[in-house]
Amino acid sequence: MTGAPNPTQNIDERVRESRQEPHLTSSERRRAVTTSARLNSVNLEDSPLRKLVTMTAETQTSTDWWMQGNYAPITEEVTYESLPVVGKIPSALRGSYLRNGFNPPGAVPFHWFFGAGMVHGFDFADGCVAYRNRYVRTPYFEQDMDLMTAVGDLTFSPANTNIVRHAGRLLALEEAHFPWEIGTDLSTLQSHNFDGKLNSPMTAHPKICPKTGEMLFFGYQFFQQPYLTYHRVDARGTLVQSEVIDIPRPVMMHDFTITENHAIFFDLPIVFDMDKGGFHFDRDAGARVGVMPRNGTNATVRWFEVEACSVFHCLNSYERGDEIVIQVCRAKSLMDSGMNDLADQSVLWQWTLDMVTGGVAETQLYNHAGDFPRIDDRRVGQPNRFGYIAGLRAAATPTFSASVFQYDLDERTAIEHSFGGTETHVFEPVFAPAHATAAENEGWILVLSHNDTTDVTTLNILDAQHFAAAPVATIALPQRIPFGAHGNWMPAD
Ligand SMILES: [Fe+2]
Q1: Of 68, 213, 369, 422, which has the most beta carbons under 10 Å away?
Q2: What is the pLDDT of residues 445-472, one digit of tens each?
Q3: Are 259 and 246 in contact (CB under 8 A)?
Q4: How many angstroms separate the CA atoms of 320 and 352, rounded?
Q5: pTM
Q6: How far is CA 42 from CA 45, 151, 222, in A?
Q7: Dihedral of alpha carbons 288, 291, 294, 299, sign
Q8: Fold of 43-491
Q9: How far is ligand 1, taken at its centre, from the CA of residue 345, in Å?
Q10: Over 50: is that where the pLDDT of 19 sits?
């Protein structure tokens, strides 16, 4: 098949034919497959977004900021049974730290977020650490797809944004497709749709309840309705509830949050409009927070209006009497000038919802620009005293500073840990408890940092109870890890 794609072909046929065309370059193959991309009844053929993606594919060069410096992808998959350590890895630190991120294997993607996923895995035992990294080998990776090609088949995931463990499965997640299951050796297994029950994309930010073991999540769509669907998976991994939630327009919904009894949705105004080239901030669209009982329905959602803003990530939320407390990294806006406008200078805010009066109090908690907020995951949906956040530096592109912060939310104080000057950038700080029954904040912070001058990425282990002190251990990695996306600590059984 070398001529125009057959528009009646199904996705499987296109995949097979694409794999049989070794004479095509990756960008030629991508353009050929893109031509036949379809989504149910939605006409993507002449949309401005389609033209934008196609034009970008024709003209992009490696000068795009997401292909420069430590945003740029790496190409080697390596395995090290033991890495040299400076300091001492606590012997009680037993388990794995897995981290996913954007790592395009060939053609330059239209956007930072659309590089295929690569998982980096650190296995800790007996004071030693092993490391390996692997691409998530979905069709998106195998065929070097672009955004538009991946539309219309929920298995065509970049699987590039997060990796979680639930009910014995490791799931590599993006937010417009199904999850992909991977093995503990980071091999790619298969697309996972919960025995055929999942009927929407799955967010990259599910929440696992520490009390019930349930995994709660949502999926949003922007090319077609329903724009939002909520799902509940029980502790054994069975999808037991799906509910369509009405929202007035398609919006980017990257994260959500839970409390002990509620699921909470953020209907914020990063609106999708193909005629405007995709997502853009529309202050006039308003902003709402929806609170629904975890086993509720669309009819039971209570919506609270908040000031128009952008929120990529939520720190946590919990119930306090008749109130619901929600802590978010909030920016005034994002994507004002288009999808690649990601100079997010968010700071930590708190929304306090009064479930009796319907009122909302909006309070800025801290002044540090930062994102990628994390807590002790054993406090998800429960009152939390501590939070951890990666600092951001003002710049035209998303730029992490050299500092991570520990917030004591009860005392409204902060401790800063800096890894150096302007040439150093931190990644997401992830908390690993000292043991299963350890107190909140009793454990370690795992945080990567990258030095632009040496081009070395380092894994740092901080004692959370001595946050500003020198790391208890540092591991200089054999190859750098590009900026971007999320990871989690998975304690050994
Ligand atoms: Fe995220």
Answers
A1: 369
A2: 999 999 999 999 999 999 999 999 999 9
A3: no
A4: 9
A5: 0.89
A6: 9, 11, 11
A7: negative
A8: Neuraminidase (2.120.10)
A9: 15
A10: no
